[in-house]
């Protein structure tokens, strides 16, 4: 569809009319990064890069008259219209068509008083008003004129007659009072029940504190301080009295709901809507110290194609100490979610020990078109498409509500929509994916714990288990080999209505309609994925998570005791660090060069093994338990070294020989990959290699004598 309702900023769709280089074209095809344009009266289309098209001076999406289309689509309805509302909208639509054309829908001749050649619009308005009045509907001719103009502005869409005025229930009560009432009632959602009298007194206290200056005006005081009877009526009108009378569980559930509207996930192009959620993997794994731990899986599912955009498995370890002050525990964190988003922007690399059917070249993906648009597909990639999320639906867990995750989504131009708490139906595709990975992957992996504790096998912890890194690779191979290439009952295409499609087949059908444009993560964006910290620079260096970082770079020495100019952070400098690779950090120069400076942990060379922020926290806990100081960095380094020495022993004989590679998250593909060695892993039998025939070339005299101990005599000089 083209037109005002189809155009959104930054997007050009099939069928749109565009103005490019002062010539009007129609978009007839989108293939990869290229767009085919056909001018009026031309026979051959023009092929142009999408980026060159939209960035050209004077570019605009235009209507049939050549006027630029404003990027203001028809607002969506808050809820689906009811049957009665649809019936009324259709009835008004028939009247508007007759006013506009003189002919009712389904008829071929105009009725008396509506002939376009004999009557004007004003006469038809008056005639229609009389006709409706006779039917018992009082509508003036002026109102009919306004309705027709509104209908025309909406491109003759009958849904424009479905009224969606927000029902505040506050009548003429000041909105500030309603807001305070709602705030006070919701603050009691998770506590024991209270009556309306207590709410009234608390609302009065809040208003007197918040609007102290406004209450000095008698008129404002009359608007803000309601009579008790009016307050109770407003509580009933707004539904707050009903909320207050509900059970504690019902009140807590209602208070957790995000802002409206609630609507099901519908998408028509890859990446338009992506659902992200976290769930237990139900597979026991080996931790960094070869102990038995649990694991969590987080993944992103594209709604349009049902494709798995990314998957990440992290260890789950219960910390020690009281709730809120536990040390050493971990699960899925906000930084893990940012790494998951980064995987959505890069192809999944195929590994040499994977099945050949997991290659993109052996799948239904349109590999030739993808290679033409994105050079990264020229390498060996797995059969998982690259889908850039535009909108993500997430729950309200603490990692998802972090400011860092919101900042990363804002940087990547991703809109966030929150699902309701304890409402799995808001993310139905994710719930189905978790069941699929349990049935088709987890139960076939060593360490499967079953669907419940009562069904768990005996001696799971004593059997062979995989490290987290191995489970991650196995899950990625399963996604490319099985999930992406298995038909889903809910995937059907209008082009092949009788066939159920796999996610890769569905993506192959949607890609030519929506196009594909590469969007790799840049080096600057990859640094923004790291966890932020704001530090003060001294002659010792900077301190991040109780670690001192220093650099010999002259730029850092110039920043000692300087002010960054960031007033919201007390003039501290911005720094970024990776909790999975904390041996280095990055400091931003706000004063002189506006560049990043790489700084190193001052005791980096004492830690020769791979270590993470979790190892540092474990070492800190050990030092504190032994009576040491938590800021004694050298003692913590020694504790981390002792922890790594203990990895060679393991907790039991059966797990002593396991690989001691700590979990360090996923790598962000932000820079070109290293060149591939074509002879890697190839063994050559030297005895089976025969010498290549020598060429008939004349020899040269050697001015040096043969080495000592060589019995061969020097060749005679050539006297010819």
Helix content: 25-40%
Overall 3D form: globular
Number of strands: 18
Please describe the biggest sheet, giving its number of strands, its sense, and whether it closes into a barrel. 7 strands, mixed
| β-strand amount | 5-15%
Content-based structural category = alpha+beta
Low-confidence blocks of residues: 1-10, 71-78, 652-659, 709-715
Give the CA-CA distance, first to last residue: 89 Å
Please tell me the overall pLDDT: 82
What integer value in Å does the Rg equal? 34 Å
Tally the helices.
Answer: 20
What does this structure look like?
By secondary structure, this protein is an alpha+beta fold. It is 30% helix and 13% strand. Strands 6, 7, 8, 9, 10, 11 and 12 form a 7-stranded mixed β-sheet that branches. The protein has a 6-stranded antiparallel β-sheet with strand order 13-16-17-18-15-14, with no helix packed on it. Helix 5 crosses helix 6 (196-210) and helix 19 (613-625) packs across helix 20. Residues 1-10, 71-78, 652-659 and 709-715 have low confidence and may be disordered. InterPro entries: Integrase_cat-core (IPR001584), RNaseH-like_sf (IPR012337), RNaseH_sf (IPR036397).
């Amino acid at each position: 569809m083209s037109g005002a309702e189809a155009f959104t900023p930054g997007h050009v769709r099939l069928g749109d009319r565009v103005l490019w280089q002062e010539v009007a074209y129609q978009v007839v095809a989108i293939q990869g990064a290229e767009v085919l344009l056909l001018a009026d009266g031309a026979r051959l289309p023009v092929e142009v890069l999408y980026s060159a098209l939209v960035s050209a001076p004077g570019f605009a999406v235009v209507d049939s008259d050549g006027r630029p289309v404003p990027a203001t689509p028809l607002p969506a309805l808050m809820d689906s219209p009811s049957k009665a509302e649809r019936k009324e909208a259709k009835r008004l639509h028939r009247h508007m068509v007759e006013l506009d054309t003189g002919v009712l829908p389904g008829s071929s001749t105009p009725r008396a008083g509506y002939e376009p050649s004999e009557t004007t619009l004003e006469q038809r308005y008056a005639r229609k008003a009389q006709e409706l009045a006779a039917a018992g509907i009082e509508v003036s001719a002026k109102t009919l004129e306004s309705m027709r103009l509104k209908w025309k502005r909406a491109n003759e869409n009958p849904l424009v007659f479905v009224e969606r005025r927000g029902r505040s229930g506050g009548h003429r009560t000041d909105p500030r009072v309603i807001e305070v009432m709602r705030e006070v009632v919701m603050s009691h959602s998770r506590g024991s029940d209270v009556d309306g009298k207590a709410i009234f007194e608390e609302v009065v206290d809040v208003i007197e504190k918040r609007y102290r200056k406004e209450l000095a005006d008698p008129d404002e005081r009359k608007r803000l301080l309601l009579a008790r009877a009016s307050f109770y009526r407003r509580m009933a009108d707004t539904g707050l009295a009903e909320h207050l009378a509900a059970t504690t569980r019902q009140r807590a559930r209602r208070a957790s709901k995000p802002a409206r509207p609630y609507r099901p996930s519908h998408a028509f192009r890859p990446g338009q809507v992506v659902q992200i959620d976290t769930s237990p993997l139900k597979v026991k794994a080996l931790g960094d110290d070869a102990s038995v731990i649990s694991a969590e899986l987080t993944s992103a599912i594209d709604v349009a194609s049902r494709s798995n955009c990314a998957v990440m498995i992290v260890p789950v370890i219960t910390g020690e100490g009281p709730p809120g002050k536990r040390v050493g525990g971990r699960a899925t964190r906000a930084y893990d979610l940012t790494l998951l988003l980064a995987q959505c922007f890069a192809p999944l690399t195929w590994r040499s020990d994977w099945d050949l059917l997991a290659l993109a070249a052996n799948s239904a993906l349109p590999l030739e078109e993808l290679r033409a648009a994105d050079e990264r597909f020229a390498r060996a990639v797995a059969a998982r498409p690259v889908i850039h999320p535009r909108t993500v639906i997430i729950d309200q867990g603490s990692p998802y509500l972090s400011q860092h995750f919101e900042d990363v989504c804002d940087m990547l131009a991703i809109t966030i929509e929150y699902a309701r708490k304890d409402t799995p139906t808001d993310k139905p595709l994710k719930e189905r994916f978790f069941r699929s990975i349990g049935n088709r992957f987890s139960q076939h992996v060593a360490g499967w714990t079953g669907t419940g504790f009562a069904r768990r096998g005996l001696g799971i912890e004593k059997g062979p288990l995989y490290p987290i890194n191995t489970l991650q690779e196995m899950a990625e191979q399963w996604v490319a080999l099985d999930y992406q290439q298995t038909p889903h009952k809910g995937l059907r295409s209008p082009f092949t209505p009788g066939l159920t499609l796999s996610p890769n087949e569905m993506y192959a059908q949607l890609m030519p309609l929506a196009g594909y444009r590469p969007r790799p993560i840049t080096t600057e964006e990859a640094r923004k994925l790291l966890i932020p910290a704001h530090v003060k620079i001294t002659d010792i260096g900077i301190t991040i998570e109780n670690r001192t970082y220093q650099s010999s770079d002259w730029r850092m020495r110039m920043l000692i005791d300087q002010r960054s100019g960031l007033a919201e952070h007390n003039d501290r400098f911005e720094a970024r660090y990776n909790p999975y690779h904390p041996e280095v950090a990055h400091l931003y120069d706000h004063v002189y060069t506006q560049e990043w400076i790489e700084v190193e942990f001052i005791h980096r060379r004492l830690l020769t093994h791979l270590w993470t922020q979790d190892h540092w926290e474990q070492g800190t806990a050990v030092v504190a338990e032994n009576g040491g100081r938590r800021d004694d960095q050298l003692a913590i380094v020694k504790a981390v070294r002792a922890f790594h020495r203990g990895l060679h022993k393991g907790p039991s004989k059966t797990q002593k020989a396991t690989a001691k590679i700590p979990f360090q998250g996923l790598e962000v593909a932000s820079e070109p990959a290293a060149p591939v060695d074509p002879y890697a892993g190839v063994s050559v039998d030297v005895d089976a290699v025969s010498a290549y025939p020598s060429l008939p070339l004349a020899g040269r005299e050697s001015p040096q004598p043969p080495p000592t101990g060589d019995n061969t005599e020097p060749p005679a000089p050539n006297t010819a």
